[in-house]
């Protein structure tokens, strides 16, 4: 038996850090949304007790470091599953890019294995398990648009943001999320207005979404990698309506409402960056069918 599962990337429309917690994590308030740029996972049921990963991507580990592997192991251990799975990952989301590629693969594995192994778990139970793998995994289990609190695992769904193009540009560098959080000076943060962003989404107001984009990790990554600031400038110059770095970076995204302008931004960035994509946001949350 085989199953195909889609694992979409996310962007952070807003990312605020409230304080550093005693457990070393940061208390966050983030608004995230899934976009139409996705990895694809093929899950093949194995009768023997084994989890195997194939990825064909030299940046993606094919052992216990892979987050999809960890998702399968977690379910096997927690529910004493004797069967196994071969997970083949067709990677499209850039790696270590701030787009939650690994987290989304883990979330897709949780959703898919729930079906493949007939576990009968609810989406909320899967999201709770996801939090044990990584802070972004719970959001990725649900997908859609949401406010994420805690260390990222407390999810409140929001409506889909106004329709627009998302142009993504990733420079030729990878970034370590742990390193960026470590360098953040919490007492110097200029906080984004999360409430205003939620209001903008609820009112379906594109220009208000644009004016309330904000990410407190952006300055940290920009200082380390000036090429990220250059990409931001380029995007603005080519006519993006608003521009922000996603997550801990280094990917920069531009929101663009009009088709012709999207083409201009996309063409302008190609050749200048490692990878460039023009995609739509995906409003819908995942369902378990
Ligand atoms: C930057 C974001 O991607 C924005 O969506 C997330 O906040 C990070 O999510 P993630 O990559 O799933 O994070 P995890 O794998 O749980 O943590 C990686 C490292 O980032 C730091 N980390 C992460 C989340 C958080 N709220 N505070 C932190 O300080 C911790 O040092 C942790 O060891
Ligand atoms: N399935 C996977 N896909 C990609 N990377 C993975 C995967 N599993 C583990 N990794 C490891 O995780 C590291 C970070 O990759 P990932 O693409 O998830 O980062 P990211 O997009 O910055 O994540 P986030 O936005 O959640 O911080 C990679 O360097 C890789 O070694």
From TrEMBL:
- Known catalysed reaction(s)? 4-CDP-2-C-methyl-D-erythritol + ATP = 4-CDP-2-C-methyl-D-erythritol 2-phosphate + ADP + H(+)
Q: Which residues form the GHMP kinase N-terminal domain?
A: 66-144
The active site of this protein is located at: 10, 136
Any one biological process term the GO annotation gives: terpenoid biosynthetic process
Superkingdom of origin organism = Bacteria
Q: Show the GO MF annotations.
A: 4-(cytidine 5'-diphospho)-2-C-methyl-D-erythritol kinase activity; ATP binding
Q: Which UniProt keywords apply?
A: ATP-binding, Isoprene biosynthesis, Kinase, Nucleotide-binding, Transferase
Q: Which residues bind ATP?
A: 94-104
Extract the Gene3D superfamilies matched here.
3.30.230.10, GHMP kinase, C-terminal domain (3.30.70.890)
Q: Where is the GHMP kinase C-terminal domain?
A: 197-273
Q: Which InterPro entries match?
A: GHMP_kinase_C_dom (IPR013750), GHMP_kinase_C_sf (IPR036554), GHMP_kinase_N_dom (IPR006204), IspE (IPR004424), Ribosomal_Su5_D2-typ_SF (IPR020568), Ribsml_uS5_D2-typ_fold_subgr (IPR014721)
Keyword Lipid biosynthesis (UniProt): no
E.C. number, please?
2.7.1.148
Which pathway is this protein engaged in?
A: Isoprenoid biosynthesis; isopentenyl diphosphate biosynthesis via DXP pathway; isopentenyl diphosphate from 1-deoxy-D-xylulose 5-phosphate: step 3/6
* SUPFAM superfamilies hit by this protein: GHMP Kinase, C-terminal domain, Ribosomal protein S5 domain 2-like
HAMAP family (alphabetical): IspE (MF_00061)
Extract the PANTHER family matched here: 4-DIPHOSPHOCYTIDYL-2-C-METHYL-D-ERYTHRITOL KINASE, CHLOROPLASTIC
Give the similarity note.
Belongs to the GHMP kinase family. IspE subfamily.
This chain's function reads:
Catalyzes the phosphorylation of the position 2 hydroxy group of 4-diphosphocytidyl-2C-methyl-D-erythritol.
Q: What is this protein called?
A: 4-diphosphocytidyl-2-C-methyl-D-erythritol kinase
- The source organism is Niallia endozanthoxylica
